[in-house]
Amino acid sequence: LESCGTRGRAPYDVVLTHGFVLDEKGQKMSKSLGNVVAPQDVMAKSGADILRLWVAASDYSDDLRIGPEILKTFSETYRKLRNTLRWMLGALAHFDAKVDTVAAEDMPELERLMLHALASLDAEVREAYASYEYRKVVSLLSQFMNTELSAFYFDIRKDALYCEAPSSAKRKAALTVIDHIFRCVTTWLAPIMSFTAEEAWLQRYPDAVSVHLATFPAVGDTWIDVDLERKWERIRAVRSVVTGALEIDRAAKRIGSSLEAAPIVHITDAALLGALEGVDLAEVCITSAITIVTTMPPADAFTLSDVPGVGVVFRAAPGRKCARSWRITEDVGSDPAYPDLSQRDAAAVREIEGRAA
For residues 267 and 320, what is the distance between their CA atoms, to the nearest angstrom? Predict the structure, then answer.
């Protein structure tokens, strides 16, 4: 009031207010009730970053609830985020960005799609931080790292990362994208999961001083590709039908791994067929092979009501299982020097052995 009266303005720019901290049942904390959750106890048991994650993900405009079950949920959220960072560190362990970086325009479509997603997310994260919407930051990063990365992009690209030859353009492009993703998500997480982000950053860049001295990476506007995003929405729709069919086959004990399948995919929708042109659908669906036909699916085909015009019929993958990639192909043993490997994997092993010699 004094500042308003003497200077005509409040002595601050922005005020953040929050309610009381209650137990998980919405009751006031009291020693007599035995429901007090002390921050020191949480940090001693779970670490400070889980407490920080709970704070950031809470709606501070209302009363805040905390308790063992709520903290257990955030411990699981934290574990998933940390595991994603660990996986990226492992994938990038031998990646030299100065030598192996691939330009965006030279990347496969899947890599360009992830750069588009990263650029789109960058704008949302910056806006959320600027407006103090930390809850939105946690939601955006959790969804991106768990759904878009772990359950989609990383799942598809594990074969290329683990089994392609070191000189593979696809593998180098994937590592370039993972490097971009790591730099972005680690700096985005740093204000919230400060200790975890610091640990990951110094593991990747041992000569750095601190992640907290780094700014959010500049993400190029040229990465935005709305047409590519729309195309891959159609591809992912087809993928959802195939993966749904594979789950039924797995439950019926027809397969143990998706690589044991080579399903027949019936597609009558012209837009979906057009989106799949030039795309290795077997790679996207993580099967050993896929046959696409344009006929109506038979009555016993697996379908999804929200993806009309697509039906999937099970077929076991023909050939032998590659001892390295586990894909079942008919060219396993075609290289006499590597009788248990597919032609691709034999060439990769030969290159690796040549480099080691």
Answer: 28
Q: Do 85 and 209 fall into the same domain?
A: yes
Domain that holds residue 298: 227-318
Evaluate whether 71 touches 46 at the Cβ level (below 8 Å). Answer: yes
The answer on 232 and 218 residing in a single domain is no
CATH of the domain at 95: 1.10.730.20
Residues whose CB is less than 8 angstroms from the CB of residue 71 and which lie 6 or more positions away in sequence, other chains included:
37, 42, 46, 50, 54
Q: Pull the structure tokens for residue 195.
A: 């200790």
Q: What is the largest CA-CA distance in the chain?
A: 90
Percent of the chain exceeding pLDDT 70 equals: 100
Q: Looking at the structure, tell me whether residues 61 and 149 fall in a common domain.
A: no
What average pLDDT does the segment 292-296 reach?
A: 97
CA distance 189 to 356: 38
Query: pLDDT band at residue 1, thresholds of 50, 70 and 90?
Result: low
d(CA 265, CA 133): 44
Q: Residue 17 pLDDT more than 90? A: no
